[in-house]
Every structure is written in structure tokens, then in C-alpha cells.
Amino acid sequence: MKFKIPFKITFWKVVLIAAWIFGIVAGILRFSKGLGAATHLSDHFPWGLWIGFDILCGVGLAAGGFTIAAIVYVFHIKRFYPILRPTILTAFLGYLMVIVGLLFDLGQPFRIWHLIFWWNPHSVLFEVGWCVMLYTTVLALEFSPVLFERLGWTGPKKWIKKVTIPLVIAGVILSTLHQSSLGSLYLIMPGKLYPFWYSPILPFLFFISAVAVGCAMVIFESHLSGRAFGHRLRVDVLADLGRVMLVTLGVYLILKIQDFTAHGVWQYLSQMRTETYLFLLEIVTGVIAPIVLLLIKKIRISARGLYYVSVCTITGFLLNRINVAITGMQASSGVSYFPSWMEIAITTAIVATGFFVFSMATRYLPIFKHPESFDELEDHEALPQDAVFEAGV
């Protein structure tokens, strides 16, 4: 009798399974051997890839959730409603991945519940921890109507609809607090963080860049969802997100220029060192290039053009957070840090799981369907259904 594989083997399924295998092995070694044996972290450099990528990047990339929710429910810009559900799902999965990554990074993860009972209101980490816990709960509640709809539970869905506006407002407040507070973590390191990234306005820079990358993630996931699942959105809706990105990136660049001028940072650009190269790559790729592209109308109203802009913005954002957490700290620490294969394997497994869960959710849950004619909105005004991209996708 021949053995038959119950699913079709594809390249990405092989990659997913390989990521899981390496991640599970690395996870076992991390929890059995400890951080010292599994990572390249040390007392001189205690925060590495799991903080720089899994947490700082993960929280920022999930910023589209509070941005789109506020646009739809608070500002009543209803044409964004078709992208609300996939955006909330992305944000929810993003925060779950952040929590999982944090459990790997903590020396004693089984004590994470101490945060709930032993308060330290003077700690920025305390505020970030509480905001992440509360906002993850808010995202779970915001996403729950999709699950209730799939299960046919009309009672719980009606109850959630009644508290949607307060939930969204709470989510916006919580997101604003911890998106900026992640930058506040580095305000106590003026002598350790390299001048390119240290700034008294770092919390606001973190927040404004999160808003920009949140919009970029919506465009990015819309493109991928269109290719993978055939759920494509109106170009005019994505073009509006592009305009928001243009404004926020412009504000970010102006603030960065003013900050460099006020604190005499321009002189460091003449020093040919790793920090200079990576900073220039970050600014050119993630700020200047998207601004220039978005100023071109042909690109701003093109689905493919907006996709490339979103890729640039996301890449620059990732570089910024990793530069803050790793590149900008190495010179003052006196050591050189590069993540171990186990750090990379665990991070890869977490990200791969996020993609897998998103694909399963879009397959079995009504993520891209709105059968009630968008009656979650106050005036019950019907909105246009999902439409295909312009030619050129």
C-alpha cells in the first residue's frame, strides 16, 4: 500500500515546515539551556534580535489596526471599511507574535504574570507591558464578530457591536501610549545610543513612523491577499492611504532635520562607519524614496506603484527599529553582537506561523466578506464592494 501525502507539496509549505522544525529545536534548547547558551546576548548587550525585531518591529507593523479602526469608526470615513477586518486580523496576530517573542526573550518567562500584581508605575516597561496586554484584549474583541459570524452566534455579535466605538477609542489611546513609549525606553540612554537615533523627541518619532508603516502594511497585505486569495481592493482607497503616508513621512523627515540641526548631529555624517552607512540606508530607503515616489501622481494612483512604496517604507521602518535596538547600541557596549542561529530560527518560526494563521483565517473565516451591508456603521449606508486593482497589478 502506497503512502499518500494528504496535502499538496509546494515550495512555501516546505519553507514553513522547515521554519517550524528549526524553531521548535531552537525553542527547546533555549528553555532547557537558558539564554546564555541559546543566544549571543550578554550582560554588556542584553537586548538583541528578539527585542529589536520581534517586539519593536512587531508592534509598529501592527499599527494599521488602530489607524484604520479610528478612520472607520471614529472619523466615519466609511470607504475604508472593506480593509478593516484583514487589518484588525493582522494587528491581532502581530501582537500575539510580539507576546510570544517576549516570552522567549525574558530570562524567567513564567513570572510574566507578576506585572499584573506588582506595579511599578515609574517604569516605562510597566506601561508598555500593560498597554500591550490591554490592547491585545481590545483587538481580540474587535476581531471576535468575525468568529461569531462564522459560528452563527448572533447574540454575542450584537453585544460586541454595541461597545465597538468605546473599544476602538480605547484601542487608539492604548496604541498611542505604547507606540511612543517604546521610544521612551531609549531616552534614558543618551550616552549609549548613537546620536543618529537618540533624540528627546524619540517617542514622537516612534509614533509617527508607526502610523506611516501601519498604512504601508495595509497596502502590502492587500497586494499579497489579492495575489493569493483574489481579494483585491479599490485603488482609490489605497491611494488615500498613500496620501496619509506622504504626510506622515514628510512630518517625520522635517522633525528629523530639525532635530539633527538642534543637536549638532550633522557632523557625524562625515564619519565613514557602520552607523553612518546603515542610517543613510534607512533614511533613503524608508523616508526619502517613498516621499519622492508618492509625489509622482502616476505612482500615487497605481496599485503596483503603491505596493513598491509600501515595500520601501516597511524596509526603512525595520532598519530604523533594528538600528535603534542593535546598531546604535553596539559602539557604547564595547562588544559586537550578531544573533545566533537559534535566535534567527525562533524569530523565523514566529513570523512563519503568523503568515500561516492569516492564510487559514482568510480561508475559513469571513475576513473579506461583509454580508450585513456594513451595518456596523451608524447610518447603515452601503459601501462599494471590493473591486479589482487597476491594470498593471
Descriptive keywords:
disordered C terminus, 2 domains, globular, single chain, Formate dehydrogenase/DMSO reductase fold, mainly alpha, 393 residues
Itemize the secondary structure elements and their pairings.
Layout: H1 11-33, H2 35-38, H3 49-61, H4 64-74, H5 84-105, H6 114-117, H7 124-151, H8 154-162, H9 164-184, H10 202-229, H11 235-262, H12 274-294, H13 297-300, H14 303-333, H15 341-364
Helix pairs in contact: 1-15, 3-5, 3-14, 4-5, 4-9, 4-10, 5-7, 5-15, 7-8, 7-9, 9-10, 10-11, 10-14, 11-12, 12-14
Largest sheet, described in full?
none
Regions with little confidence, pLDDT below 50 for 5+ residues? 371-393
Strand percentage lies at under 5%
Global structural class: mainly alpha
What number of domains? Answer: 2
- The secondary-structure element order is HHHHHHHHHHHHHHH
- C-alpha termini separation: 46 Å
pLDDT average, as an integer? Answer: 86
CATH architecture of the largest domain: Up-down Bundle
Radius of gyration: 22 Å
State the fourth-level CATH superfamily of the largest domain.
Answer: Formate dehydrogenase/DMSO reductase domain
Number of helices: 15
CATH topology of the largest domain: Formate dehydrogenase/DMSO reductase fold
CATH class of the largest domain: Mainly Alpha
Shape descriptor reads globular
Q: Helix amount, in percent?
A: 55-70%
